[in-house]
Amino acid sequence: MQSKVVSNMAINSPFNKSTPTSYKTTTKKSNRVTTLVGQQPISAVIAHPLPPKVTHSMPLEKKELFRSLESWASNSILPLLKPVEKSWQPIEFLPDPSQPFGDFTDEVRALRGRTANLPDEYFVVLVGDMITEDALPTYETFINTLDGVRDETGASPSPWATWTRTWTAEENRHGDLLRTYLYLSGRVDMLKIEKTIQYLIGSGMDPGTENNPYMGFVYTSFQERATFISHGNTARLAQKGGDPLLAKICGTIASDEKRHENAYARIVEKLLEVDTNEAMLAIGEMMRKKITMPAYLMYDGEDPSLFDNFSAVAQRLGVYTAHDYADILEFFIGKWKLEKLTIGLNGEGRRAQDFICGLPLRIRKFQERADERAKKMMTRSVKFSWIFNKEVTL
Ligand SMILES: [Fe+2]
Ligand SMILES: [Fe+2]
Question: Which sites bind Fe cation 1 (predicted)?
Answer without folding.
Answer: 133, 171, 174, 257
